[in-house]
Amino acid sequence: MSPIQDVVTFAIREYLKHYSTPMQLTLLTTDASLATKSAKDSMVEALDHLQSLINEEMARQSTQLKRRRNHEHARIYQLPQEVFAEIMLAATSIDSNITDAFTLMRVSKYWFDTRRDHNQE
After folding, report:
1. Which residues of 14-47 are buried (b: 16+ CB within 10 A; e: fewer)?
2. What pTM did the predictor assign?
3. What is the pLDDT, as a whole number, of residue 99?
């Protein structure tokens, strides 16, 4: 498990331990430890940070799944990398809408890596 996953798992588990039942949900409005403005600010900051960690982890997982889907199911990824690199080179020299290699490199990490690796040869 990644460090981010560990933090998110721990934070969610601790948060749910304290605020998961209907009676416990009222703790945010009645908890004596949240009586001061700074305590409330700290809780808001902690929840915001937790939300950003969760969003970051979800984006990472989604990206990994999309890459896996592409590599396993998109026909273009079944081409040998050398053939794909030649197609990319031809596309930049023929199509005036593709102004440079960087346009192709922004399509995906695979396209970026293919173009970068081919330029190094």
Report:
1. eeeeeeeeeeeeeeeeeeeebeeeeeeeeeeeee
2. 0.55
3. 60
